Each structure stands twice: as C-alpha cells, then as structure tokens.
Amino acid sequence: MAITYADAGVDTDAGDRAVELMKAAVARTHGPQVLGGVGGFAGLFDVSALKAYDRPLLASSTDGVGTKVAIAQALDKHDTIGFDLVGMVVDDIVVCGAAPLVMTDYIACGHVVPERIADIVRGIAAACEVAGVALVGGETAEHPGLLAPDEYDVAGAAVGVVEAADLLGPAKVREGDVVLAIGSSGLHSNGYSLVRKVIEVAGWALDRDVPELGRTLGEELLEPTRVYSADLLAVARDASAQVHAYSHITGGGLAANLARVLPVGLAATVDRASWTIPPVFELVRGLGSVPWASLEATLNLGVGMVAVTGPDGADAAVRLLAARGLPAWVLGVVGFDDGARGADIVRGSKGVHGGAVRMTGKYRTQ
C-alpha cells in the first residue's frame, strides 16, 4: 500500500491556500525597506539607515501567547490572538529603547484550516502595523498526531535597533526617579493557566454574561494585549519626559519585572493603593480564593508597562502618554536599597541581579 504525505495528515495545498488568504494583510506591514515580498526562504530588510547610527545596537526578543490560545480555540475566534503575540515580543524590545524593525511568526497546528491560519496571521499583521514593525516571514507547520486537529500554538521573534547612547535601562536610573504605571487593556497574555484553572473549578462557561465586566467571560478573557511600542518610543524620544527605563509587566507580575530594570543598590517603593484593580482581576481572585501574593506574582493587575523617569519629567511623561490614549499615574519613587528583607520586597528575577522593589499599602478594588 502506497502512503502519501496527505495520508499522514499533512495537507500542503491547504497551507498554500492559507498563504494566499493572508498575503494582503502581511504586505500592509511592508515599507520600502522590505525586499522580496511574501514566500521567500528568508525575509529581506534593507538596513542602510543604520549607517547614520554612531553605534547601532540590535535588540531581539522571542515569545508566545501561552495558554490564552485555548480561549481563542474554545470560542473559535482567532483574529485577535496576533495582538497578544506581537505585544509580548515587540514590547520587550521597546524596554531598552529599541525600535522594532522586523518580525517573524511560527504557527504549529494539528490540521491546517486555511481560514483559521489566515485569521491568526491577519491579527499578527494588524498588530505589526500598530507597532510599526514589518512582518517579513513566517511558518505554518502541520503536526498531526502531536496536536489535535483544532489545536495550535503560536510564537514569534523580532529584531529592533537602538543607538547605544539612547539605550534605556538600569544604567540610567537614579535615586529620586519617579515610577509611573501605564495601564493594561486587561489580562494581556500572562497567567492564563491560573485563570483557566479558576474558571474550570468554578464551573463557569465562557459564554456566561458577567455584569461586573459588562460582557461575557470569554470576551473579557480574549481582550487583546495592548501594543505599546510605537507610543512608548515616541515618549522616550521627547526630552521633556526624561525616560530612563521601561519595564514590561508580564509573567512574574509588577515587582519582579520592575526589579529587572533597576540597578543594584537602588529600590523602588510602589504604592498598591495608587490605582484601582480592574474588575477582571478581582473576579479571578474572588472566584478562586486566590491569595493576593499569588495574584500579584502572576497577573499584571492593570499595569501593562512601567516607566521610570527623572523627577522633573514625570508630569510631562503622564501628559504625553495620556495624549496617546495611554492612562498613566505615579506608582512610587526610586530610593536607596537598605537591604531589608520581607514578603513585600522583591530582588532580581529571571536571572537578573538588579535592584529591589518594595510593595506597600493595600490594593483598592471596585
């Protein structure tokens, strides 16, 4: 008996159809720097502009969406998950002040449904337009027998550039700097294993209408990640804002991620009472009796990014962010690290030997 690739569960024709459906969306992310269009073995990007840099530094990042894809699959809605992917990747790059140049994506699935794959990539392309990054390549891999027919996972990688003199991070942070919060659009794309477990144990359906959220549970959980990069780059380039560092509040929560961009010897004091926790986070906490410590170390609690500015730049930074539709407020200040230990003090995260963050006060809920 002759066995073909199709007999093994791989449909190359479906993959080709998916590419045709997504080509126009991908092309909209391309400027004159992109050569070759869609379908080449490698994406080409003209970096002649880097000749004007004194010392260009390339910044790279890679990430996925995590188990949020399970929500998209359960709701059979796939055109927003791309914002989660792009946000997770390019907003790690903007933390050091780099402008994202190019991005690639990878989709692994049990079975290629062209319309579904095209929806995913259209979402990625739309988010790339918001971020100002060119989507120059991607891959869709069919893994029958490894993934169920309706299952998929997504990942991506991006490369950006920053002038060495404009590099943001711990080296620029000083005692007396101000810590600003920049609001999230919701859960973003972290902590969904906890969220999904809470919902499972509670027995809640995704189509359940939740009055305190003003929509169904599924709609809230699938709310796309806010993509910050273009706006934060613009603010960082405005001298009046005096931006010294950014932190992307992803896995690990606010304190652990902020500590990564502070230098050894300094500690940021953050006031939990400086903002009101959005309803979805209080819902997760209450529904699952999740301890505050676990919630704080897992979810963003309404803070998607943090900016550390010079003391004279904080007001300007808040105004500039507000003008770009980004809610921002003062979280606290940077001072000297007294070496104290305790449950409310975080030092270092993900292998970074950095500064410390001291969480004070109690969260306010609606």
Q: How would you describe this protein?
A:
Its main location: cytoplasm. It comes from Pengzhenrongella sicca. One of its GO terms (biological process) is 'de novo' IMP biosynthetic process. Its EC number is 6.3.3.1. Residues 55-162 form the PurM-like N-terminal domain. With 366 residues, this protein is an alpha+beta fold. It is built from eleven helices and 17 strands. It has helices spanning 12-27, 68-75, 81-93, 114-131, 192-202, 217-221, 229-236, 253-259, 279-288, 292-296, 314-323, and strands at residues 34-35, 44-45, 56-64, 99-109, 134-142, 152-163, 178-183, 209-210, 215-216, 243-248, 266-271, 276-277, 303-309, 328-336, 345-349, 352-360, 364-365. The strands form five sheets. A seven-stranded mixed β-sheet has the order 10-13-7-14-11-16-15. Helix 1 runs parallel beside helix 4 (114-131) and helix 3 packs parallel to helix 4 (114-131). It is globular and about 75 Å long. The termini are far apart. The model has no long low-confidence stretch (mean pLDDT 93).
> What is the string of SSEs from the N terminus onward?
HEEEHHEHEEEHEEHHEHEEHHEHEEEE
Q: Helical residue percent? A: 25-40%
Largest sheet features:
7 strands, mixed
Radius of gyration using CA atoms only: 21 Å
How are the strands ordered across the major sheet? 10-13-7-14-11-16-15
Report the sheet-strand fraction.
Answer: 25-35%
Would you report the number of β strands?
A: 17
